[in-house]
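C-alpha cells help. Consider this.
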Amino acid sequence: MVTRILWVSLVLTPIAILGRFVFELDETALFILAAAALIPLAWLIGEATENAAEHTGAGVGAFLNASFGNAPELIIALFAVADNLPGVVRGSLTGSVVSNILLVLGAAMIAGGDGEVDTRSLRLQLFAVFGAVFLLAVPSALSWSGGSHERHSLYLVSIPISMILLTAYGVITSRNLRIHRAAERGEASEHAWTLRKSIVWLGVATVATALVSEILVHSLGHFGKAVGLDEFFIAAVIVAIVGNAAEHGGAVVIAMRGNTRLATEIAITSSAQVALFVVPAVCLLSVLVGRGLPLSFRAVELITMAAAAAFAAWVIWDGRSRRWEGWLLVAVYGVMVAAYAAS
C-alpha cells in the first residue's frame, strides 16, 4: 500500500512544475509543493539504488546513491549563485554535510537497529571531511580578518583549494571503489530490477529532482518571509534536508530492510561527496552562472561540520550500528540546528 501511494505521489512533480511555469502559484505554496514532491522522488532514488546495489554491492551502490542524490544539491547551489545568494549557497552546503552525517546516519541506525558497518570505508571518508574543513578554514579565516580581503581575492585563494579537494575526492573514491569491487560480489535476488533499469530510474528521478529543486530555490525567499525565518537557517536546515531527501529517504528505507551496511555507506559517502566534490565544483562553476563564489564559511559552519564528523567517527569506530547511537546523532543534530538559529 505504501509503495503504491509513493508511486502515485510522483504526480506531485509535474504539478509543481505546472504550478511554477503555467499557473504561477503563490511562492509559499510553491515551496511547500516542491518540498512535498521531493519525498516520493527520494523514495524512487532509494529504491533504484537498492536494486542497483543487488548487482554492484553496498560500496558501489552507496556511490551511485550519493552521486545521483547530490546532483540536485549541486544544481540548487548554482541556482542560488545565479540569484546572488552566496550565504544561502554556503549555508545549504554546510547543512548538507552536517545533516547527512548526523541526521541521515542517525535515522538509518534507528531504523536498522543493530548491524554491521564498513569501518575501512567510513573512517577514510570521515577523515576526508575533517581535511576538507581544515582547507576551507584558510579562505574563511581570511574573510574573518576584516575588509582587507575583497570577494575576488578570496575567490582566487579558493581556486587552488578547490583543486586539492577535487583531487582528494578522485583518489579516495577510486580507492574505495577498488576495495568494494574486490570484497563484494553482487548477486541479485530474483525480484531485483535489472542494473540497466535501476540506472535509468536513477537518471529520471535525478532530472525530476533538479527541476523541482529550481522551484524550491526560486520560492525560498518568499517562504522565509512568510514564516519569519532568515535565509541562512532555511538554507542550512530546510533546503539542506529537502535537497538531500534522496539520501534521507533512501538510507532509512534500506536500513528498515536490514541492510545497515549500505544505509550507513549512503549517509557518509554523500556527506564526503558534498565536502570534497560539490563544494569545490560549485566554487569553480560559479563564474559561469554569476560572480565567483569564495569558500569563506562562517566559524559556526566549520565547527559544526568538524564536530559532526567527530561524533560519527566515534559512533562507527567499532564497526557496529546501534539504535541508541542513532538517537544520539539525531540529538546532536538538534543542538546544531539550535546553533544555526542563534547565529
About this structure: The first helix runs from residue 2 to 9. The chain has one domain: 2-184+191-342. The first strand starts at residue 115 and ends at 116. Strands lie at 115-116, 320-321.
